[in-house]
């Protein structure tokens, strides 16, 4: 049995993690792989500024640093920001899959132009960064926000009647006004809207979290991983220092709740 670690990008308890695990219902992965969810022990309140992104990169690096030693065969990162992906690819040999870039690359397999649906405008910087790294700015027809502050814990639960119609309205504008042929949900926290939205819009809608699970499974089946010629192994690893900073941050949070 292959083991995949799914890194949840915020410290949270079992009930909140369960809402993340519900993404598994959207994809058939077969019996040969097991997914284990782990929340970070430190991190920002939300991914809404460059300050937050620095903390996000570190928190995910800290969470997945010892994945290989712990017997995991791959890592999935549960945030469209792709935070920590490059850092973990630098220190791990096993596949590390993040949803942002892979959703955009899949969109190019399904159509020419894609749009990104997002909860609020503060997330735009996440996608702009990845689009620039991939050289795909010209393939993004639009990024449309519904102007709703995201809830990283309860996700969309209890807000379906408010949020789903807003997403459909934005999706229609992406297709009819912006020329999008594929839509990407802008966050794994939006997964609860995927099937509802897909049934009501005439183009493919990419659900980024389940996509990473399937890609991790495929990478393991094909014995593929990232290139160490791109993500270089550090000459002087500082794993103990990273663990110590993570432990200190977790102790700080515990004492200031």
From TrEMBL:
Transmembrane segments: none annotated. SUPFAM superfamilies: Aspartate/glutamate racemase. One of its GO terms (molecular function) is amino-acid racemase activity. It comes from the Bacteria. Belongs to the HyuE racemase family. This is Hydrogenase expression protein HupH. It comes from Agrobacterium bohemicum.
């Amino acid at each position: 049995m292959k083991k995949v670690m799914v890194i949840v990008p915020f410290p949270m308890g079992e009930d909140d993690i369960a809402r993340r695990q519900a993404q598994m219902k959207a994809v058939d992965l077969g019996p040969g792989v097991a997914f284990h969810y782990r929340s970070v022990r430190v991190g920002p309140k939300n991914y809404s500024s460059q300050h937050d992104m620095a903390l996000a990169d570190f928190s995910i690096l800290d969470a997945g640093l010892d994945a290989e030693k712990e017997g995991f065969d791959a890592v999935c990162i549960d945030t469209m920001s792709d935070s920590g992906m490059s850092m973990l690819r630098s220190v791990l040999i096993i596949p590390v899959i993040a949803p942002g870039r892979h959703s955009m690359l899949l969109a190019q397999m399904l159509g020419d132009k894609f749009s990104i649906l997002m909860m609020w405008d503060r997330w735009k910087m996440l996608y702009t960064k990845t689009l620039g790294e991939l050289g795909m700015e010209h393939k993004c027809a639009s990024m449309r926000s519904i102007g709703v502050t995201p809830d990283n814990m309860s996700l969309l639960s209890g807000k379906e009647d408010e949020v789903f119609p807003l997403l459909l309205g934005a999706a229609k504008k992406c297709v009819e006004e912006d020329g999008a042929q594929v839509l990407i949900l802008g966050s794994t926290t939006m997964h609860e809207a995927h099937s509802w939205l897909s049934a009501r819009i005439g183009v493919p809608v990419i659900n980024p979290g389940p996509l990473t699970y399937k890609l991790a499974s495929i990478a393991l089946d094909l014995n593929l991983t990232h290139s160490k010629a791109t993500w270089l192994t550090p000459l002087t690893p500082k794993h103990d220092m990273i663990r110590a900073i993570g432990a200190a941050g977790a102790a700080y949070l515990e004492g200031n709740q």
